[in-house]
Specification:
Among the domains are: 88 residues, conserved putative lor/sdh protein from methanococcus maripaludis s2 fold; 85 residues, Efflux pump adaptor protein, beta barrel domain (Elongation Factor Tu (Ef-tu), domain 3, Beta Barrel); 62 residues, Orthogonal Bundle (Helix Hairpins), CATH 1.10.287. It is 25% helix and 37% strand. The protein has 3 helices and 21 strands. The chain is rod-shaped. It starts with 11 loop residues before the first helix and ends in a 17-residue tail after the last strand.
Length: 382
């Protein structure tokens, strides 16, 4: 039996089919990649053409108005005259003739010390004086008649004058035991009791002259040329609500403090109702000449380390848009801030929502509800 050879099938058709399948896969992948590429291009084009909706803001018009700037400082009050009333003689308190916290006039009797011993000395001195006066009159008559010498008359005259001086000394001693107010003022809380023994210099009560009253404060060297005697002051104190007290600068220290380079200033303030008390801390304003300044709401300011700025509303291509502008700030008053440069009167600035803006951003102005813009706001009491 002979061997039978089976012919192998040709491999070319299989390879051909594989190539065709590979080409088809590549075509499908290329088609899908092209479709995705077109989608991405369309998305990029749509993103580039997308415009964000306008930001809702409120606006205010920059106003030119007259304003009186002021230099501000913290000061303390000091009495024009203030002493601790005391005694220069030791003694026992026999009378207290004042009430704590009362207002007294100069010369008003406050405390009397026991002076019985001094009164007895006064009576004795008056008796010697009266006797010396009788002797002097007798010597004068005898001298007229030439019965006594001039030296005897002079001795009698000297004795009388010494006796009169002793009377004055006794009266002065008694007067020193009656302690009186040295000036008009407001009394503090008494520190003595009836029957108490007082040593020399023992405190009795504080006496402060409060109308007018001094205010002392300091300003930096940079303000040296802006202050002078006669400049008007406004003073307000925490705890004294609803009141500002008027006054004027009365003295400026002759030298600056070497540590702080501050200038010490003293002003005199009217205080008719004694509402201000010595020792209080107060806010002081030195009023400067009036000037015209541009004011906008303080909420319009965008504060930044590189410079403060505002957003000015202007007409854009598709509506209103904002322009960011750097400004220089001046003083403030209430809800308003002064603009020294960078803004013109009449320009419209964004007053709320500035933290959401950038230069050129579209805005939608809605001024139904606006932030405070009052130069003298009065917050409600709570």
């Amino acid at each position: 039996m002979s061997d039978i050879t089976i012919p192998k099938p040709p491999r070319r058709p299989l390879l051909k089919r594989m190539l065709i399948m590979l080409v088809l896969v590549l075509i499908v992948v290329a088609a899908l990649g092209f479709i995705k590429f077109r989608q991405i291009q369309a998305a990029i084009a749509a993103g580039a053409a997308f415009a964000p909706p306008p930001t809702a803001v409120t606006t205010a018009v920059a106003e030119l108005s007259v304003w009186q700037p002021a230099l501000r400082a913290v000061g303390s009050l000091k009495a024009v005259n203030g002493v601790t009333v005391s005694t220069d003689l030791a003694g026992i308190v026999s009378e207290i003739l004042f009430e704590s916290g009362a207002t007294v006039k100069k010369g008003a009797l406050l405390v009397r010390l026991d002076s019985q011993q001094e009164a007895a000395l006064l009576r004795s001195a008056e008796a010697r004086r009266d006797l010396a006066k009788v002797n002097l009159d007798r010597q004068r008559n005898l001298r007229t008649d030439g019965a006594v010498s001039q030296s005897e008359f002079d001795a009698a005259d000297s004795e009388f004058r010494q006796a009169a001086a002793a009377v004055d000394e006794a009266r002065a001693l008694i007067a020193r035991k009656a302690i009186v107010a040295p000036f008009d003022g407001l009394l503090g809380i008494r520190r003595v009791d009836l029957g108490q023994y007082l040593n020399v210099g023992a405190p009795i009560v504080q006496l402060q002259s409060t109308d007018p009253i001094y205010v002392e404060f300091a300003l930096p060297q940079q303000n040296y040329e802006q202050v002078a005697a006669g400049k008007q002051l406004r003073v307000s104190a925490a705890g004294v609500s609803g009141a500002q007290f008027e006054g004027a600068i009365t003295a400026i220290d002759s030298r600056l403090d070497e540590a702080s380079r501050n200038l010490l200033i003293q002003g005199t303030v009217r205080n008719p109702d004694d509402r201000l008390r010595p020792g209080m801390y107060v806010s002081v304003e030195v009023l400067l000449p009036e000037q015209e300044m541009i004011f906008i709401p303080a909420s319009s300011i965008s504060y930044a380390p590189y410079g403060d700025s505002v957003f000015v509303v202007a007409a854009g291509k598709a509506g209103k848009e904002v322009e960011q502008r750097v400004v220089k700030l001046g003083t403030s008053r209430g809800d308003q801030a002064a603009i020294v440069s960078g803004l013109k009167a009449g320009e419209e600035v964004v007053s709320s929502g500035v933290f959401r803006l950038r230069g050129g951003a579209p805005v939608n102005v809605n001024n139904v509800v606006q932030p405070g813009n009052d130069p003298k706001p009065t917050p409600p009491n709570r």
